[in-house]
Amino acid sequence: MASTDDKVILKSSEGECFEVDMAVASHLQIVKSVLEDCEGSSDKVVSLFIVEAKYVAMIIEYYKNYVELKEKHEEGGFEEKLKEFEKQFLEQIDKKELKGLVMAVNYLNAPALFDVVCTAIAKHIENKSVEYVREYFGIVNDFTAEEEAQIREEHRWAYDGVNDD
Amino acid sequence: MDKPSSSSLKNQKSKEMAVTGFDSINDDLVHNILKRLPALSFASAACVSKSWNRICNHILSRPKFASAMSLNPSSLVCAQEVVDRVLSEPIRPHFAIANVVGVFVLRADAILEFLADKLGSRTPIVLSSANGIMGRNVVNEEFKEVLPGDSCSDGDAEENLDGSCGMVLTVGLVPGLKVEAIPLIGITKVPGMGVVDNFVMAIRNFSTSVSGSTSPLGIIMFGDEESELKCIVEKLDYALSKETIVVGDEKAQFVCRSGSEAINIGRRRKVSSGAVALVFARDREKPYGVGEIQFHAALSDGVSAIGPRYKAASVRVSTSDYTTWLTARREGRQDILDGQRILNDINDDLGNRIECPALFIGVTRRRKCIIGSEKSRFMTSLAFHAVIGGDEEYLFADGVGIKTGDYFQFYHSDRNTASSSCTNVSEKLKNLKLGLTNRSFFQTEDVANSVQEREFIGGFIFSCCGRGESFFGRPNVDSSPFLENFPGIPTAGVFCGGEIGRGLSLNANESSEESITCLHVYSSVYLLMSYTPMASLEH
């Protein structure tokens, strides 16, 4: 892991700059590879073109805590502490932001947070109607009526016992 | 990962895309979210759009097992717990096996109905009552063998089971196979041959319609304790190709759903059945890209032969309790022995080695077999009968079907045999896992070449109710071959009153007598399913 003295600047889509420790930024695979590509260059600014500032801030917050907790709980207990933090972290993100965040994290290729956000989104759409899921993700139903009826029939087993919603 | 081109990145529109355009992003991300959904929500997600449907189908194109055990004393809570667990991940139930123990058998009808509600009314479901169950407990994730009381010895079984009840549920998704629950219709103690023929023909017809071959890949069978399964299994053995694996519980009590019909339900059964076969056949119309599922079976023997061979001199059948009364000669001798003398000799042989082993006679039967109007053929098999006792006239054995002139030998339950054969099975599974197994087990060379790609998807164990912790003196011996080699794969099982095991591919190289019997005593029968993806079959 890079020494903590190292800093890197992450630039959001709006052009806002965030100075972060290399130890934090190296969790973003895309940043890591960009820096490796221009090794030796003194310019340590990485543009995260499509990522909005609020998501950059969230991602930095997550990994800052991740790195800190890992250092603090080297002896063990890291995973529980991280879980605790993740819970609290997700509480301050609304459902709409989750979508933006997952795309940002996907783009930046940050495995640990990707896992957390995917799970959170899955949790959110659990037990929701097909219509809700479409609306939430902004997906257009491209089935014809017959196709949809057929697909629903294929999955009928799942609804056999459901009387409501 | 797709990196967007830089020109579009700087575009003002990109900001919007980052917020709303979820359908513009790659399938990988959707895949990553959907695979985390529980089964029911996953089924909804498949109805969202064409691309989501494609992703869902892709996730379900690999076979999957899910199994769970609950020991909750309330049958409905228990059923709910195991269902919730098996449906906690994406799966589409192609079949379900539920095994209950204890007083839950009284609620079998209600539990079956509940399962049909949750797993689909057209899903083949078999619910059997067993002497014991094994599986991973939903509460603490621990694998446990549960064999309440000494329920194998008859008498006050109800009392022993009081307060200890539970259920284990196995659900399977088997793309590339079709599964059907085929019941033997008609419940008589000794089913008429017409009934058995119809049953075997129904299995062959189903297999033919699905795969084009009369012999299916495998069968998981449950027999009714009221019904004598020997002749059924014998006929199946005769009628099916050597490769077909048949495993099961010979003496269960079961209810099941086949098509959308419930069988053995209610006190005045509308349709009643003495046996049910969950038949797995390869679908010749399986979608492109779906790999191949294989069944593997192994046997851990638990009896040892003792004493000389005998030849039945006289045979009487008691039709009231379906026992056989025998006299016999020692092989090569002329004098006819009564039950008392035979048992005395055997007890002498046993000496003081074992306190009180279970005693069986293994009868070598050579019988003409025929199905329908096809040409008949002689089959030799070894049939075990529990020894009930002997007096100054006869030796009493459980079951019927022994004829004058049949040879037989005594067998006794043997912990050492059982223990070492468990180790042996474990070793075979390890070799299978490492891809070291004899090539002849594989159906094609392609499969043999791709063993490294093989995944193991689930297991099921049928163990004799006389085994378990009290027999071995330590817990989880019967399940150890799976736990040691495949700790991560879903495994469940039952303790039962008679183990069916045929086509034991992993024992194939052993030239021992077990190869000629399909109904075992004091044994554990292991069924393992594996999957070889299409990609590795092609290369």
UniProtKB/TrEMBL annotation, chain A:
SMART domains: Skp1
Membership in a protein family: Belongs to the SKP1 family.
GO terms classed as biological process: jasmonic acid mediated signaling pathway; protein ubiquitination; ubiquitin-dependent protein catabolic process
Domain SKP1 component POZ: from-to ranges: 7-67
Sequence ranges assigned to domain SKP1 component dimerisation in this UniProt record: 113-158
UniProt keyword annotation of Protein transport present: no
Assembly behavior: Part of a SCF (SKP1-cullin-F-box) protein ligase complex.
Pathway: Protein modification; protein ubiquitination
Signal peptide positions (record): none
Keywords from the UniProt entry: Ubl conjugation pathway
UniProt protein name: SKP1-like protein
Keyword Zinc set for record: no
Function text: Involved in ubiquitination and subsequent proteasomal degradation of target proteins. Together with CUL1, RBX1 and a F-box protein, it forms a SCF E3 ubiquitin ligase complex. The functional specificity of this complex depends on the type of F-box protein. In the SCF complex, it serves as an adapter that links the F-box protein to CUL1.
InterPro entries, A to Z: SKP1, SKP1-like, SKP1-like_dim_sf, SKP1/BTB/POZ_sf, Skp1_comp_dimer, Skp1_comp_POZ
TrEMBL record, chain B:
Matches recorded under InterPro entries: F-box-like_dom_sf (IPR036047), F-box_dom (IPR001810), FIST_C (IPR019494)
GO biological process: positive regulation of proteasomal ubiquitin-dependent protein catabolic process; protein polyubiquitination
Pfam families, A to Z: F-box (PF00646), FIST_C (PF10442)
Domain of life: Eukaryota
Residues of the F-box domain: 25-65
Domain FIST C-domain stretches: 342-503
Protein name: F-box/LRR-repeat protein
Organism whose genome encodes this protein: Erythroxylum novogranatense
